[in-house]
């Protein structure tokens, strides 16, 4: 079970990292839009 969880964790981290690289700028622009309307 632990091996499966570790593999899943690594897989999720890689995906999360890719999502961050794509959405980082979008998040910043959305943050500014929300707080500086």
TrEMBL record:
Protein name, UniProt field: Uncharacterized protein
């Amino acid at each position: 079970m632990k091996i499966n969880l570790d593999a899943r964790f690594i897989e999720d981290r890689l995906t999360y990292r890719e999502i961050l690289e794509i959405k980082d700028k979008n998040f910043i622009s959305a943050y500014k839009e929300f707080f500086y309307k």
